[in-house]
Amino acid sequence: MLGRMTASPERPRRRAPAGAAVLREDVTEAIRAAVFEELAAVGYARMSIEGVARRAGVGKTAVYRRWKSKLHLVLDLVSAVAVQGLPAPDTGSLEGDLRLLYEVTSRALRHPVAGQIIPDLQAEAARNPEIAEALQKALREGQHGVASGIVQAAVARGELREGIDEGLALDLISGPLYWRSVVVRTSLPKGYLGALAGATAAGLRGL
């Protein structure tokens, strides 16, 4: 009897404090998808948490539990894109790597949502240092990271010289397609990506 009375009672399970419930990943992904659609539809300036929540089919509180403002929501999306990055080409030749990079990038830039969102965020970046920093980080870790790998692999194979100006090389690789697809926004003629890869490879060999 005494033993039963002095035994340590079973500890009750601790309940998670209010507001500390696990965030559902499917809801988070639905909100992220809604942000892309909302940005494409109305732009950053007119985008609202209410509009994102309505498009995602959730309440505003579901958004605010994950991000405290639309700025933080967009910055998180830009950073996520940077982390995902582009696949690193490995065709065994400089021109082949460039061609594959341009094909993947061109498909991404042709997407109607990307075509609307990128120019809008660039315009917003001119007014908002936080967005500007996030975009620069995305470019460094995404496109430029892959382009840097292409240059380093070409140097290792002996296709490009040691000590090449990598900053200039990255500008040469990334600039023309971005200019054509995002700034001028004209369609690419047949054979353009192959010709661009060949011209870029020749230019890099001259650096």
UniProtKB/TrEMBL annotation:
Which top-level group of life is the source organism from?
Answer: Bacteria
* Tagged with keyword Transcription regulation: yes
Show where the HTH tetR-type domain sits. 25-85
* Keywords linked to the UniProt accession: DNA-binding, Transcription, Transcription regulation
The residue ranges marked as DNA-binding region are 48-67
* Keyword Zinc among UniProt keywords: no
What PANTHER family would the database entry show?
HTH-TYPE TRANSCRIPTIONAL REGULATOR RUTR, TETR-FAMILY TRANSCRIPTIONAL REGULATOR
Return the protein name: TetR/AcrR family transcriptional regulator
